[in-house]
Each structure stands twice: as structure tokens, then as C-alpha cells.
Design goal:
The complex is a heterodimer of chains A (about 525) and B (about 575).
Chain A: H1 6-48, H2 52-65, H3 70-82, H4 86-99, H5 104-116, H6 120-133, H7 138-150, H8 154-162, H9 165-170, H10 172-184, H11 188-199, H12 205-217, H13 221-234, H14 239-251, H15 255-267, H16 273-285, H17 289-302, H18 307-319, H19 323-336, H20 341-353, H21 357-370, H22 375-387, H23 391-404, H24 409-425, H25 432-446, H26 451-464, H27 467-480, H28 485-497, H29 501-515
Helix pairs in contact in A: 1-2, 2-3, 3-4, 3-5, 4-5, 5-6, 5-7, 6-7, 7-8, 7-10, 8-10, 10-11, 10-12, 11-12, 11-13, 12-13, 12-14, 13-14, 14-15, 15-16, 16-17, 17-18, 18-19, 18-20, 19-20, 20-21, 20-22, 21-22, 22-23, 22-24, 23-24, 24-25, 25-26, 26-27, 26-28, 27-28, 28-29
Chain B: H1 3-14, H2 21-40, E1 50-52, H3 54-57, E2 81-84, E3 93-96, E4 114-118, E5 124-126, H4 128-131, E6 139-146, E7 155-161, E8 165-169, E9 175-177, H5 179-182, E10 191-197, E11 206-211, E12 223-225, E13 228-230, E14 243-247, E15 253-255, H6 257-260, E16 269-275, E17 284-289, E18 295-299, E19 305-307, H7 309-312, E20 328-331, E21 340-343, E22 352-355, E23 363-364, H8 371-375, E24 380-386, E25 395-400, E26 421-425, E27 431-433, H9 435-438, E28 448-454, E29 463-468, E30 474-478, E31 486-492, E32 504-509, E33 512-517, E34 520-521, E35 532-535, E36 544-550, E37 556-563, E38 567-571
Parallel strand pairs in B: 31-38
Antiparallel strand pairs in B: 1-30, 2-3, 3-4, 4-5, 6-7, 7-8, 8-9, 10-11, 11-14, 12-13, 14-15, 16-17, 16-34, 17-18, 18-19, 20-21, 21-22, 22-23, 24-25, 25-26, 26-27, 28-29, 29-30, 31-35, 32-33, 32-36, 36-37
Classes of the chains: A mainly alpha (about 525), B mainly beta (about 575).
Amino acid sequence: MSALDPRLCAIAFLFAPLFALLSYPIHSAEAQSNRAEMHAAEGLALAKAGNLQSAELELRQAVVLAPENVTFLEDLGTVLAMQKKFDESNSYLQRALTMDPSDLLARRYVAANLWQLHRYAEAQQNLRILLRASPDDPQGLLLLGMVSENTRDYATAARALSSVPALVRAQPESMAALARSYYHIGENQKARAWLNELQTHPAGVRAGLLGVQIADEMHDYETAEALLSSLAARYPDESAVRYQLALVEFDAHKFEESRQILQQLLEGGHGTREVDHLLALCLEAQGRREDAIHTLQNAIQLDPGDQASYLDLANLLLAEKQISAALDLAHRMTKTFPDSPRVFVSVGSIQLHAQDFSNAVTSFSRAAQLDPASADAVIGLARAQTNAGMSHEAKATLHIAMQRFTQKAPFELELGQVLMKEAENGTGDKHAEVKAKELFNSAIAHDGKLADAHYELGELALRRGDLAAALVHLKMAAKLTPSSANTHFALSRVYRRLGQEQQAAKEIALFEKLKQ
Amino acid sequence: MRPFLYGLHHAIARKRVWLSPCVLLSLMGLSFTSLAFFQNSPPSPPQEIFSDITERAGITWHQFSGESSDRFLIETMSGGVAFLDFDGDGLQDLFFVNGGETPRGKSSSPVLNALYRNLGNGKFEDVASKAGLDRLRFYGMGVAVCDFDNDGFPDIYVTGFPESALFHNNGNGTFTNVTEKAGVKNAGRWAASAAWFDFDRDGYLDLVVTNYAQFSFNDLKKCELNGVRTYCEQKAYAGMPLTLYHNNGDGTFTDVSEKSGLAKLIGRALGVIAIDVNDDGWPDLFVARDASPNLVLINNGNGTFTDVALDAEMAYDSNGVAKAGMGVDAGDLNRDGKPDFVVTNFNDEYHSLFLSTPSMLYTDRTVASRLAAYTRSYVGWGTHFIDYDNDGELDLLIVNGHINQVIETTRVDVKYQEPPLLLHNEGSGVFRDMREQAGSVFRSGYRARGLAVGDFDNDGGIDAVFTQLDGKPVLLRNNLGQNHPWVGFELQGTKSNRDAIGAKISVEIGKRRLVRWITGGASYLSSHDKRVVVGIPGNHSPETVDAEIRWPSGTIQRLSGLKLKHYHKITEPTGRK
């Protein structure tokens, strides 16, 4: 030691920290990486054990320690997706893709998240990249099929899903999507084959019922009934199956069969709001409106907090012209649901029917206040104001709505009708009829399926004596709403003026039938 | 002398040599008068077209509706009135039909009809009791007057619920109830308007009765508005068929409702007018119905009728809605020689105006005529085309009044008591509201129902009377019509029914032809002076006019040299059957 030069010691002493410092990153990077690995491993183990929250914490640690580790990013993204935190999941997965755009796993997971978020266009974009790189990627094809089905590209959906049958069979939802797609492209046999498979799916009655729903939705009532019968045989005590059967029968207009099943459910103690509801609809369809009313009243007693029952009952009472009872119900509804915009729209409608226009204005105003985005509330308000003799206010209501709402067509139609009334009774300006016509035309430009706008233009043309134009518009109105008695009446007037007596008589016959 | 007059005196004095004394005096008088005028009196207002002379005339009768907390719809609908010359003295008298009691709507005094005899001096006297017309054993609604037995004296048919009654005029100021004998009781029905017309042209007037709805005082219907008990809308009541009685010519009638096809036309009928719609010489019917489609019943000439209202486009409005048709009248507005129609309706529906075209298709001119603008807020009842100013154009008189006492709590623009409307025909199928000039009655609110028109003072100015629920009627004297040239017709059938109901009168004035009819029915629940007054268009000043009468029998009679401002009594040229 005496041999060591003190300067060397000093230098060593001076540089020792430097040496120490310089050598530290090499050692800590390794340590960090090790720690990250540990956290990641722990996270994966927790995830496998089903403890996703803890797994997330561990994997977050891993990512903090190793922010550029693509695998850790993917794992964290996956765990987040498993907890339905799709947006955050995507943020980590996108980071992984930024580092490695060829990471097909991350790409697939991003597409899956986007599908869950209903961002179908972006999902499709990612799937295109994925399948370009790996055209036979089975998971990618499955996902493409589901997204395409959601966007109603049924041909692509059928093609994609049918290419991965094993994967499709894993979930009832994918089997249902494929069946639905086949229906839409006219391959009903194939659709039915998949629905039959759903009956024996390991997911049990849930899968079976899904199959029934698809058949019912696609108006294949025969298949729906057959599937249900088979389900009912295997699950005789399953009230959900019998309810589905009742629903299918109802959709197939077999109201008596449907009613009997529902009645049995009620008598068997399986009465629910849905059962009472469907029973009420059956009874109404059978013309037994009084019974339907009682049934809905029962539903309300069963569940006084269920708004839908009140609303359906209100509609039924109005259809039966039981205005007093409807007004009583309106009173109850406003007390039970003081903050429900739908209730106040319903109450306003009842008051309109009862010609209680001032109170209708109040109710619709309240509905609009509770839900400024409710077009029904705004239109109801304008209508009530017009009927109450407040046409100036009605026009203001509609003008404001036309500025606020994206869908302008209903308000343009309503305003046009207000102006027409003013033109008729001489209270508007002299250009009211011209302005009304412009509004009707604009409404149609925004929504070509607005039958009432076509009707109004037809009436205007008829009034002018322009029979050709009247016929065009009224025929369109009749095509869009064939059950509109007024439209057929107007058509009869056009045909009569054209000297086409037979056509006129046909339209009048339709009018008389529809009026009843 | 004051300076002004001094100066005038000197001015006149200077000119004294060559001004005539009359001029001088008139100048002097004028100056004094003018000064006095400017110093003392405001300018006198133009005379109102119609004056309310009810009180002056001594009319004190009061309608009783039986209004009750039960709110039976019938309580809102009564109020028939008739102009008739019951005693043949050449002066139009008045008959008012009262309503009646309801289970909880009782009267402290007997509910009586009134027959006001025209005393000729602007005064009337109630002689209903003496005449045997004061009491009914049912709830009274409307009245239809005609000489059903052609004995020269007008008889009275009173409609009501649950029956109606026929009173034969004995010719001595009294009437006899001949309902049972005649077979026109219309038992069990709620009858509204009725019209006499000769549907088979046998010279005897037949009777059509509009029946409104199935009704019973035991059937309580409960409706509310804004928490207040109110009258139910008409659709709560099912409709009824029409009744048609054929006059057998021997004092009896036969119910031919089924045979004629009228019995199958079920609806809520309120107003009716008998007039030749298609100008084939056979009288037809227009029936106004309440929330049921109107009927245009074309007489097939064989005892049956065909409804052409749909083809004529008068059954519904242009949106296919059956409006609340209450009253109806017909007249030739567009001067094509064919009848046009007005129908009164509910608020927001507008009272309708249908104009004839060369085919059977009618045009709805409600909006174009401005009738829509004037009637949007009103519930209309009695209505009549009258040429109130005798300018040759048919004007329109409508009486209004709501049924719902609480309507003003739900609307800012509709009132319970509503003013009548006098609409002047501007000559191109367009009306003008004469509210400001018509008289104070037209600026006041009423619950008006029946409306009848007639010339009670025989001056050529058509007067009017309307009833109101639970109130006194209003008798309106026309102050204007007599100031303008007119010609009057009082027809008497011989081969045709004596009243000449169904006759078509065409008056030629220059190149213009004015057509008028003697109709059965018209308005709401009411009956009118059967004489016809034709105003002479302003740009013509003939001394006499020519006319052509098509009698109900088909006989055509041409007349010339008819003096103006005069009623001409014209008898059908052929002999009686």
C-alpha cells in the first residue's frame, strides 16, 4: 500500500464514484428489465387465475419499467380489454403497433376493441391490414364476419364466417350472425342449418332461444316454431322458452295461440311485465281492447314503477277513445314519473285528444325541458300551441327546432302545415302557401320517405288543378303509408277529375275501409 | 247681427236682384242650420243594417234548455223558430219551439212554446196558449211549417225527443194535434230538423225528418275537460236513420223510410234542405250530418233516392273528414242556375261552401270565398243565404255559439258566446264580413241556435230571427234592403202543392238571370217565410222585370211586366187535381 502512489488513490477516489456511476445503468437496466419480467409474469399468472384487477396493476408496473416491450404492452392491452376498458386497451395496443406495425396480434386485438366500441369502419380498416398480411388468419376472418354483419354487408359476413366454421361454432352469437347473414343473402337452407345447430349448443337454452329470435326476426315463423317446439320438449319447465313461443306466434299473427300460451304462463305463476304486455297486445289484436286495458292495468299493479306499461295503456285508452280514463292515467303518470320526458309527451298527447290545448302546451313544454333532444316533445308542443290559437309561438318553436336538430324534415313538415292552416283561415301572410310548399319540398329532400309531405304537396297540386303533379305525390304517399285513409280519399278526387271513375271508386272503397 | 251673418246678409243682398227667393231662403236656412249643426250636434252615424227590435216588438219568450249537471247533449241543441202567416192576414208571425226539462234540469215555471202574432205595427203578441200550441209532452227541438192538406192555412210539425208532433191549422187561430191520426209521431227518436217537400210530385207535401242520435236520459255519458264535467262529443252517440213520410192526401201519412232507401243511411243528421240539385224537376235532399258524411240524395223519380255526396265531393271535406254539419242552406251563388250549398260546422273545421260546376262535381270554395277565415273560431248553427241589400247577390247570415262552457280555459281564440256573422257577397264568390256595419248584435256574443228569415214588415228587406239557449230570441229588422229595388213572389200551387215548395223562379234582368227556389227545410231546426224576394242588381234600374216559374208539377209559367218593390201573388195556371 505504501507502494501506491497517493495521487493514484486520490484519482481512484475521485473517479471511483464516476466509475460507479458509469457502471450503474448497465446493472439497473438489467435489474429493471428483470423486475419488469417479474411483474409481467406475475400479471399473467393473476390474469390466468381470473384476478384481472391485480393482473392489470402488475402489468402496468411491467410497462412502466419496460415501456418499449411490445409483449408487455399487448398483455396489458388484453387484460384491459377483458375488463371492457376498450379505449384504454387500444391506447396500449396502438403503442405496440407503433413500435411494430407488423404485430398482427396487436392489430387483431385493436380491431376487436373497435368492434366492441361499435367503431366499425376503423375496425374494418385494421382487419384489412391484418388480412392483407395474413389472409387466412382465422381470428381475423371471424372478426371480419362479425363486423360485416353489423354493417349489414351480409355477403362479406357470410363469406368470412363460413370460412372459419370451428371458430364460429365456439360462440352462439357468431352462429346467429352467420345464420342471419345467410337469410339476408337468400340462402335460407344454410341459415336454418346453423339455427338447428344452435339448438344443441353447449350454451344451452340461451343459444336455442337466440336461434329462435333470429328465425322470428327474419319472419321464418315456421322454423322459429319448430325450433321452439324442440326447445320446449327439452326444457319443458323453461318459461322463457314458452314466452318466446308466444312471441313467435304473435309475430306470425296467430294471436289466439299466443294468448293461450301467455295465459298458461300467468296461471302457472310466471307472470312478468313482458308476459302481461304481450298478452295485452294479443288481446288488442283480437279486438278485445277492454281486456287488453285490464291486462295492462294488472301489469301496472305488478310493477307500479314500470313506465312502459303506463305508456302502452295510455295509447290503448286513446285508441279506445276513453279520454276520461286516459286523463286519469295522465295524472297518475305525472305524479309517478315527474322527471320523465316520455311521460310528459304521452300526457300532452292525451290532452291534445281531449282538446285541452292549454294544458297540452304545458305538458309538451315540460317534456322538451326534460329532454331538449326529443323531437316528439317539440312537435307536440308546436301542435298544441297551434291548436290553442298560439300559432305565432308554434312557428317560433319550429324555427328554433329547425336550427337545433340535425333531422329537420319533421319540423319542416309541421311548420308547413301550420302555414297552410294560416293560409286557409287568412291569418298568415299572403305568401304562406308558397312558403309551405317550399318547406314540404325541403322536408322531402331531407327525408324522401316522409309520406305526409308528399300528401301535402299532392293536395296543393290538386287545389291548383295540376292533376299530374297531384297524382305523382299522392301515389308516393300511398306507397309509403298504404293505410292512410286521407291519401286514398285524395287519390279518389284526382281520379274523378281525370274521368277515371273505376279508379276513383276503388280508392274510395279503400278510404271507407280504412276509416273503419 | 253677428259679423258672419252680417257678411252673408250683404252677399245675399248684393245678389238679391237675380237670386230666386227660394234659393235665398234655402241659403239663409242652410246657414242657420249649418251653424246650429256644427255648434250643437255630432254627425249622425250611418244606420246599422240590422236592428235588434226584440224588446220593442214585445217578444219576451225565453228558451229553456234543461241544462243540468248530467250534461245531456240534448241540452245544447234545441231552439227551432219559424216565420209563418198562421192567420192568413198577410203578415208573417213567429213560432218558437222550447226545449224542455231533463231529469235534473227543472224549470220553476211551465216550459212553453210561443206563437207571436204579428200585429202589423212592429209589435207581436203571444197567442200560443189560445192557439193550442204552447205545450209539448216531449223535449222540443225544431219546427217545419207547410200547408200539408192544401187548405190554405200553414200547419206546424214540431220535432223533438222522444217523439214529434203535427199540429193542423184549423183556420180560426187554433191548431189541433193530429199526430196520431196522421201517423207522423217518429216515436222513440231524437229528431232535429224536418223538411216538407213533394218527393213524388203528387201535389201533397211529404215530410222528411232528420234523426240525430241514439239517446236516453238513462244513459249518462261522462266527459270532462280540464277537470270539469262537460258535454261529450257527438261521436259518443251512435247515429240514426232518416224518416220519410209520404203524404197520402187524406190527412194520413205512410212511413216509407225503408222503401225509399233512406232507412239504411245511418248517421247523426241535423240539417236538411229539399231542392232540385240536378235540375231534373224532381226535388232532392241535402242532409247535413254531424261527424257523419253529408248526404246528397238524388230523387230517382220512383220513390227512391240515391246518395251522390261522395261523387259530388260534399260528403267530406278535402281531407276526407266528416265535419260537424249542423245547418244547411242552398242558393245560386255563382249564377249558373244550379244550387250551391253552405253548411255550418264546428270551430277549426270552417263552415263549408260548395259551389256547383257543370257536372255533378261540386267545388269546395270554403277557403277561396274567405268563409274559412271568418268562421275558424265559431261553432255554427242556423244559416241562410239572403240578399240583405237587394243588390242581386246572395249574402250569407250565420248564427254561432259554442256548447262547452269551459272552452275558454283551453283556448285563447274560441269563445263560449259567439257573434252572428253577416257576410256580404262581393260578387265573385268572395265574402266580406260586415260586422262593423251590420249592427251591434253582430259584435255581441250569443249561444245562438235556430235562425229563420222572413219579411215581417213586408217592405222587401229580409228580416231575421234567431234563438239562443236559455235566453231570449233576437228579432232583427232589416233597415237596408227596402231602399233598393226588389221584386217579390208569393206563389200558390194548384196542381202543385199549395205552398209551391219546389218551385224554381228565374228573374231576367238585362242579360242576367237570377235564380231562386222555394225550398223545404233549410237552416237549423227552423222554417222560413215562403215568399221569395229578388234584389235587382245595382247597374240596372228597370221599371218591371220578367220571370219564369217552373212549378213543382213541371208546369212552366212565364210572366212579364212585374212591378218592382211589390209582392206578386201568383197562382199556378192549371187546375187542382
